[in-house]
Amino acid sequence: MKPKILALIGLLFILSMASLSSRRFMNIVMNNSEVTQAGTDIVSEMTKKAECLQDFMPKKGIVGYLVNREGPLPLHTIDKTEIQYYHLTQYALSPVVIEDSLDHEYIVGHLNNPDELGDIITRFRLSVIKDCGNGLLLFKQSDQ
Amino acid sequence: MNLIYSFLSLVVPLFFGVVTSISLIWHYEIYQSTLIGVFLSIGFGIGITSILYFVWSLVFSPNAQAYFIVEFTLALSLLMSSYLILRHKPFKSLERAKDYQSLWITLFIGAFFIFNLIIVLRSFYQLTLNSPNGQYDAYAIWNLRARFIFRGGENWLETFPNTIGNQHYDYPLLLPGIVARSWSLVDQATKIIPAIIAGLFTFGTAGLLFSSIFTFRTLSQALLATLILICTPAYIFWGSSQEADIPLSFYILSTCILLFLHNLFGKDQKAFIFLAGMAAFIIGLVGLARRKK
Q: How confident is the model over B175-229, as pLDDT tens digits?
């Protein structure tokens, strides 16, 4: 086959593959949300949800964080959803810094099981300052 | 109105980039590189402004109105000095290598390119609508830093404590810097600005690839290479993610192009100094865009 015809075949191949790829990707993006890690806009949802804590929180500094009765968030052991909620909470409450520790006066709780609330309050000697519902709370250390 | 203000907030950074790169390219009479300079100016402008804002925030406060007066004055001074340097320079017409490709084939590729570019722009827009705050790392790292700087005000440095190990506080501030600066200008943490910046880097990188191949090879080759890049789904996905990967690729590509230009114009000592400096500056911006172990 002549080199010119081979080049033309190659060109047509590239053009058709590129068009198929872009067309297929657009279909996925338009019809299927699985292409986004976040799915729906959970950042805006979380920001709105966290608004109820902001009047009760310090305006700057570091606050603690817990997700369940085990205490502080051991990032290497918990599942990715919990880490994601940790980062979402941090984003929503910035510029206050959230540390995965209980060594602070204020502690933000993002409980994955709200039934554990009573147990958590007793175990870590916390008092509830604000409960936003859906597991999002602000605690204060009782002995500080 | 938000959209218009968000676009306007990025005019000065782009202006910085355009004036710097185009006037330097014209000063050294490397006219072939003008189109490259246009796309380089996106990274240059954003880089220069981000550094300027970072230094200002360290010395003063991130949300001071005085910063924007200084920035605007600097932009005007840069324009004036470029005019004074370039006003007596005769503009030479561009000498291009002859394109041996058939006009019909070039038109054929061009039609495919425009068709796919429209599809890709639509996909980018839809991805941005799906995740207006970007993907995971965007709100966990990059836009979060921008919020710390913007909302932290005078105490913004306290929001980067080195005692907490799980939040990547050592990540560089090129993207957060430009986002926080633009939020300060429009006085709200709008989602539009990080999305516009993501678009500038995504399509700027494609433009840079197109312009460099078009300058040194042929139009049809430039169209084909750019078509392959923009039709790669992962490229558009990560481009719209508002993370630092595509800005990093922009600066790596810029460095490769500038090193090639340096090789091409190496005999001209002035051009050599300018291009080597340009490459070094951009390599510095790579370090500022994304931290890699």
A: 999 999 999 999 999 999 999 999 999 999 999 999 999 988 889 999 999 999 9
* Predicted local confidence at residue B275, as pLDDT: 67
Structure tokens given for B183: 């939020």
| A19, A29, A104: best to mutate for the B interface, most B CBs within 10 A | A29
Which residues in A have their CB inside 8 Å of a CB on B? 11, 14-15, 17-19, 21-26, 28-30, 33, 35-38, 41, 43-44, 60-62, 75, 84, 87-88, 90-91, 94-95, 97, 99-100
Interface of B with A (CB under 8 A): 105, 109, 112, 115-116, 119-120, 122-123, 126-127, 130-133, 135-136, 139-140, 143-144, 147-148, 151-153, 155-156, 158-159, 161, 163-164, 166-167, 224, 227-228, 230-233, 236-237
Q: Rounded to the nearest 5°, which phi and psi values hold at A43? A: -65, -45
Tens-digit pLDDT profile for residues B221-243: 999 999 999 999 999 999 999 99
Q: Is the peptide bond before A95 cis (omega within 30 degrees of 0)?
A: yes
Report the distance separating Cα A92 and Cα B159, nearest Å. 14
Q: Rounded to 5 degrees, what are φ and ψ at A128?
A: -85, 125
Q: What is the ipTM of this complex?
A: 0.85
CA dihedral sign, ordered B213, B215, B220, B222: positive
Q: Using the predicted structure, report yes or no on whether residue A35 has a pLDDT greater than 50.
A: no
SS3 content of chain A, % helix, strand, coil (to 5): 50, 20, 30
Does residue B276 register a pLDDT over 80? no
The domain locations on chain B are 2-286
Spatial CB neighbours of B185, under 8 Å, sequence gap ≥ 6? B9, B68
Prediction pTM value: 0.89
